[in-house]
Amino acid sequence: xxxxxxxxxxxxxxxxxxxxxxxxxxxxxxxxxxxxxxxxxxxxxxxxxxxxxxxxxxxxxxxxxxxxxxxxxxxxxxxxxxxxxxxxxxxxxxxxxxxxxxxxxxxxxxxxxxxxxxxxxxxxxxxxxxxxxxxxxxxxxxxxxxxxxxxxxxxxxxxxxxxxxxxxxxxxxxxxxxxxxxxxxxxxxxxxxxxxxxxxxxxxxxxxxxxxxxxxxxxxxxxxxxxxxxxxxxxxxxxxxxxxxxxxxxxxxxxxxxxxxxxxxxxxxxxxxxxxxxxxxxxxxxxxxxxxxxxxxxxxxxxxxxxxxxxxxxxxxxxxxxxxxxxxxxxxxxxxxxxxxxxxxxxxxxxxx
Length: 353
Description:
Layout: H1 5-8, E1 12-13, H2 14-21, E2 24-26, E3 32-33, E4 35-36, E5 46-49, H3 53-61, E6 66-70, E7 79-83, H4 86-97, E8 106-107, E9 112-113, E10 118-119, E11 124-125, E12 130-131, E13 136-137, E14 142-143, E15 148-149, E16 154-155, E17 160-161, E18 166-167, E19 172-173, E20 178-179, E21 184-187, E22 192-195, E23 198-201, E24 207-210, E25 215-216, E26 221-223, E27 229-232, E28 237-238, E29 243-244, E30 255-256, E31 261-262, E32 267-268, E33 273-274, E34 279-280, E35 285-286, E36 291-292, E37 297-298, E38 307-309, E39 314-315, H5 316-352
């Protein structure tokens, strides 16, 4: 998008927004927009969005100056931008009006940086960070505060660690990786063997490798591999409170939702989706585009494009049929009791003859 005075002031014309998302303008494209808000909270000068009839009606009666709408929709009385996918358009527009804070290059006086560490001059190291020996911090990356980067760990370019995120020794993060507060990457895998009546620890000597464009939510834990690496593929998004055990390998662009747990050495293909509060047993394989429904317990491999649900997880249609059957049980029990009574009455009548 070309530079203009409006963009420099944080405002954009409807035409500029439409150009950014590849949309079609209906109405005055020179109208200036200063922000984005939901229809019921938008004010004059705001952009809003509507991807259903309910939201279209709300946008039409609301105060927003312009609205992003589906390609075949209309919103009389409003300047509109038609687009093929409203949700994708919003995801692209939001950074225009709420850009990320640019790094403030430099190292805070309270930070401790080992002399052998290599911190790019354009990176920002916040207060009370510890950067150990042999660490590399790439260009424009940000450590917001209280971060500990263990020895020989590496942080790529344009990455961001929110407060108190920790990288254990040897952890490797790629470019444009975001790690939210309280997450620990590289902690020991859970490895013990029973030896003479006691649980002897199996040293975890591997590491964690996180590829480019990954985002990891708050208070997640990703364990280092026992010998090799625990790997998170490019573009994968991990929600809050997720546990990834040692030697798990995730493919590219997976979606892992909150409170999911992966046991050791599980492998995920590309574009897998695992919904909240599910557990995946160890040494399993989830094929490309496999999907796991919420609150599922996966005990067997899931084929590519397979959809499973339930405890234990089974193909979703099979699980849903079982759920319907369970819902019908009270009526079936009532009918069975009636049949038992009828049989008992008939038996009594026959015995009296």
